[in-house]
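User: Please predict the structure of the protein below. I'd like the answer in structure-token form so I can feed it into my own downstream comparison script.

Assistant: Understood. Taking the following sequence of 591 residues as input:
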Amino acid sequence: MNVRKPSGPTLVVLVLLVLLPTLAVLQYRWVGQVSEAERERMQRNLRNAADQFREAFDREINLAVRDLGVGPNTAREGASEQYSDRYNQWVNTALYPQIISDIYLIDEHEGQLRLRRWTPETHTFVPAQWTLRLEMLRPQFERDLREFNEEPRFIDTRTPAYRGDDSMIVLGPRVFPGPRGPGARQQAPDPVFTFTVLQLDMASMEGVLIEDLARTHFRHTEGDSYRVAVTAWDDPTRQLYRSDPGAPVDPARADATAPLLGVGRRGGGFGPPRTNDAQNIPRPEFEDRGRWRLLVQHESGSLEAAVQLSRRRNLAISFGILLLLSGSVGMLTVNSRKAQRLAQQQMEFVAGVSHELRTPVAVIRSASENLAQGVVSGERVKRYGQLLEGEARRLGEMVERVLQYAGIESGLGLGARVPLAPMDLIESAVESAIPLVGTDVNVERDVPADLPPVVGDAAALRSAVQNLIANAVKYGGRDRWVGIKAQHVRERRRSEVRITVSDHGSGIPASELPHIFEPFYRGADALDRQIHGNGLGLSLVKRIVSAHGGRVSVTTRAGAGSSFTIALPAAEPDTRPSPVSNEMQVSAQSS
């Protein structure tokens, strides 16, 4: 028993079918690993960006606190060269000096609180009226003054106290005991009660400082972009800044947070814990809290959502490529089978045509030799002439179909298109088919005279109808009956003429219906009954009708025959048809 080995393309297809599921599984796992790495990368970058934002923000505020806090000498005199130098240094080194709108000095004068404001033009503190915001803090300043008078101590005025609303930074008093021991009182200066209030310009804070930092660290034209908000530490609903007014940042879903202006447990401070150099007194320890809170949220809603979206996008692209490869493999398989089947049909066509050509050629050669050698005479000469005429017509029909198929495949098989009357077209096709199928055929017509014309190549359309008539005779019943019906149909704004050719044959098996319009295909019944043909008739019909914008359909029933319908677009109203000639018939008869 011979076992047929699979062909090379078949082996390739089998290997690809095994590899594609494996690639899909590996791709899914790889995309998952890439997503985890991407999540870690995004989280790390976001934490770094939040830290850089915090450091830049705190650095700008720290610079103002360091340089603008008022010391005892400046408080006593209302001015000092040292303070003026520090102020000028701050103006020249700060990136955003506009965030400080005013500098206030609160101290004691004749047992009462005194308020003075710094004037950059004269470099002095001048008396000022209490603002509404400062007036709200006045009771606490008075309480601190009473406590100070009860037990005077030295004051470090450059320590933030964080009293007041978001628009103020209050420096001092950080009170600590003076030097102890004999002679300590003489070594230390007299204590001074002093507060420094830095009034923030909130418009500049929001529109310049925070906006620039948010744009630098969290908004990117390429890559991830984030929504940014700055809120009060203890009240997230009190917002200092929001990058997107239409999309607030949800504190519960923020991807990163950071304290701005970190505060210590016993009153606060900036930067890491330090000690007072003069008195060697430690500053308070720090905890992770601040005056304001930075909230960052990915524009997709959360960092996790962004990662999942990226993962789904990568999976979609990856599996799309795999599906494309799978489709390509499928198409390769289908085309390979079609090519094999077409090659087989072409071989059968060549063999069939060779056989079909050999028979009439042999008959014509034999009859012509007999006539030439005088073997036949009398009435037999007439019969020989009729035999030669029939075989020549049969030979011409085969050659005509092969040439017509080759012409249509090359795009040169159709001539000029003119309006044609359906009745003339059908009559011309019947007259052309009668010499080929015999005069004993019973053709029953139902063709109204008022059908609208169709536009097309007369010879091609006549050939299509003629092929259907010839097939109806070949595969029809013994009664050799052919029915031809034409009608005008309007549906879905489409006007068309339908020509139906029917027979009383045994019908077409369901398994053969998908292939009957393929070139070179011949059904099992035709092969069993050895019906003459080359498998091009119905293929030519479909190609001719499709070239005219129409369609071909078939209905069949076992034992009751088949009906083929040609549907052609109707011409515009009032179109006058051209006459249909019988050039094909004349050519066939003359050959």
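That's the full token string. The longest helix spans residues 303-372.
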